[in-house]
Sequence to fold (500 residues):
Amino acid sequence: MSCKYRVFFTDKKDVVFNPYEYFDAKAIERRVRLGIPLSDSSDYPVNESYVHSVAAVVDSLSYQSRWLNEVTVFSTPSAMVAVAALPFVKKIEYAEGYAAVCSVTGVQKKLSAADSALLEFQTERMQGSLFREKNINGKGIRIAVFDAGFPGVNTSRVFEHIRKEGRIIKTFDFVTGKDFVYHANAHGTAVFSCIGGMDASRCTGLATGSEYLLARTENILTETLSEEENWLAAAEWADKNGAQIINSSLGYTYKRYFNTEMDGKKSLAARAAGIAAAKGILVISAAGNDGDNIWHNIATPADADSTLAVGGTDPYTDLHAGFSSFGPSSDGRIKPNVSAPGIAAAASPSGLIVLQGTSVSAPLVTGFAACAWQAGNTNNNMDLLRDIEKSGHLYPYFDYAHGYGIPQASFFTGPHSEPVPTFGFETNEVSVRIVLKEDPLPLAGKKHLYYHIEDAEGKLKHYTAVYAEQREVFSIPLSRYSKGSLLVVHYEGYTSSYRF
Fold:
């Protein structure tokens, strides 16, 4: 029986590479600006003589990766014994898997008059009007979108402003091997609209002035076990063609990995995301929609250390949406990094719809990131990632549901002001009380107070958000937590802590 394997090579001996012939001018510009070498060995092509030697033994070849110096093959296990014996073969990995787009199915509906408020909210919750007031719309930033198809993007009025100005720079379907991507699953159409779409004068995303690379990497109807290879191939293609940001509203979880493997190192997509980040690209990934099922935790490549993972919030409560996957990563890092509305107005081939899932949260933040980069306050992709975290409305508070909260444009447009204390801690021999500085507003004016408990190593043992309904919001017995534990509280822009 023929199975799928990845064959990694030891070197790229005798391979020739000319970066000026291979890279788009924008890719050269990015590397020069960030001090990244133009002739890094990971950019060199795979040694074709090695590939030919492997091809002579296996049943067929699939994808070659420059970055990982490997070729994916279909072969019988017995033939792979011969491949492993070749002197230039470093290691072999068995390839299998399952993929999913990060949207909740069955909740699409045509936009009603009542949904107009939602359309405005999805960008304004990130203070999008502050960017618009300064004519910041992601201009000059090139964004690659990886998804399952883009039907209607070539005809819909939501993308007319992008098409008219020729800002869809390149497209490629990694499933079929052709340039045409305006077919298949409309998930990518919705995602793209939440990055930079416009319905008449209303923005569905913030990066209305950006340039785009559209890559179809997923075959939703037929599982081919090739999605992560396609993701890697698309990342190399995006790098070659000058992408500064990658948006991936896709996730790889069960039937391929265990929860314990969401460490940013195990999956092919996470490894690819890490390399893309090392080459100066900001990778933004949906956290996943498994918060209310048995998987529960984030998907990959959201688990990668250098990936900005985005969780979903309920726009009607401003709290974690039940479907949104939880952190941390399996090795204990803060995930998701930030959050954004997980219910939004988005484009479909037939018009605007309401879509639910972290598939819309991630592109909303991607549009925000393009504007933040254009604003010119950050030097490189990783600085931008950290600044987007700092712009979160909860920062420096965090938890494994919201991350640092919803990014705010005021962080990038300024000026900044010091937070005003809104609560304090009062203690006695048996408890610590959280007491507001002022009486909370009644009924509809009630605000959420967030708190978490960290152990001595900084890992969260408990976290939640509660309504502040009275001045003494709650008290915690000192005996409940061990010495050295830390209580961190956030309320109305102010964060403070108490050490047990």
Summary: Confidence is low (pLDDT under 50) at residues 104-108. Residues 423-499 form one domain. The chain has three domains: 3-94, 100-413, 423-499.
